[in-house]
Amino acid sequence: MTMRITLRAIAYGWLFAISGLALAVPPAADGGQGLLTPPHDHVSVRLETTLVRAAAEGEALLRARGEWLEADPAKFAKVGGMGWPTGPIPGIGAQWTGISNFVDHDAAWPNRVLDYTCGSRTYDTSGGYNHAGVDIFLWPFGWHVMDHGSIDVRAAAGGVLLAKQDGNPDRSCSFDAPDTPNYVLVRHADGTVARYLHLQTGSVTSKAIGATISVGEVLGRVGSSGISTGPHLHFELRANSTASAAVIDPFQGDCNAVASAWANQRPYRDSQLNRLSTHSAPPQTASCPNTTDTPNFQDQFRPGDRAVFLAAYRDQRKGQLAQYRIRRPDQSILSQWTHDLASQSNAPEAYNASYWYWTLTLPANAPSGVWTFEADFEGQTQRHTFRVDALAAITPVNDPRGLIGAWFDPAKSGQGMEMHWLEGDLLAVFFFGYRDSGANLFLLGTHVGRLNFNEPLTIPLEAASGGRFNFFDPDAVVRSHWGELHLTLHHCSQATAELIGADGQQVLLLERLGRSPGLDCD
Q1: Which residue of 150, 203, 381, 399 is most buried, as measured by CB atoms within 10 A?
Q2: pTM above the 0.85 mark?
Q3: Distance of CA 393 to the CA centre of its chain
Q4: φ/ψ (deg, to 5) at 118
Q5: What are φ and ψ of residue 48, in 5° steps?
Q6: Contact 496/407 with Cβ under 8 angstroms?
Q7: Pairing of strands 159-165, 212-213
């Protein structure tokens, strides 16, 4: 059997093809790949004035209510032990992100930069702005992630809500964007203030000014409001809320010889394989002024189809070998190959973000079932599943009400899904299962539109929390974005469901537990 594998570099249109069952270290591409300038931002003098004024108004309100507590260094320890400001952890909040910029410790400008390691992973501008925070960006397909629920912004430390802004446009992609970010300011007990900038519109916490904020509490979602070149969080610490407040870099290093403010400081190069995915065609990432990614995700194929296999990284460095495998349903290996950034000519020592994809034509006799695309990188193995079905003709579901009921995977008893159709074409999906801690996990998703057999659906999922059995208060229930459900209905009694989200990834081969009397999806 012969098959064809193609390694394609994103930025340069380079193409290499080889026939055979296995691909060893492939030749290098013509030039570097990846994102040389992931999302960054600008805090103008005008915005700085706006943030200081908003903080002062919040302070005045708290003083008027008798709720202001003066910072007392003898009483309150310096802020430290901070949690990561995107979440949840572990999950896509930690997985689908990277760092593009740190605090600039060189006060001169322009082109005079120094990060906490004495490196240059930061920036300044000709207008006199030295980057004063940590930029955590969404990756890969940041606009797509943002459009499908985005990633939570979480309080790195507890305190009180000092100021907030919501409702501003959130699809900025250049330094020419309006200087109007959505934001949250939190004052800590020691008087320091955390700034969370560029949040997604409509996501900012509904809490009132002066409300208590707990570490890890959701403050909003990552967006791209204000002067921003793409979806990211600008997290900034200041010594206090005044205009002259010193910038605090939470990272400890050779050029910032202070104690780290993080509970667990991450490595300068936190190399990770962020995501494996399969696609119907090479993905198209947005380029400003366009802010819509076209990833062409697909998890359902037929024998003989061309499938694109993608691996996306953060902080990928030369010398880090990735080993890839494509497994048939019986776990036998169809193909395997390796890749190293060092094989790419003119590549830098590291990319803040990068992705690579390979195109493979599935064999004409490919067996039906759940296949696996997996990769070993830096001691970790990641997997992405997809389905190949020889009988995968796309046909309409005549009456979706006939699919109403309980669905479960016999091999994973104890969890499953409920599907209901409401008001015609509105599908409501409820997943019930467990977190790794043993706690219950309940997820809700909806989809509007007609359904076809063997046509994958992508349904955003939300996790519900905050309710209680006694004295139930519906306003206390919080629904936060959890991830996505990739659902494919094969026929009236069989479906494949892939859940990807905050608690990990798994595939359920669903069977319908029973039919509703008088209803038939055929």
Answers
A1: 150
A2: no
A3: 32
A4: 75, 15
A5: -60, -45
A6: no
A7: antiparallel
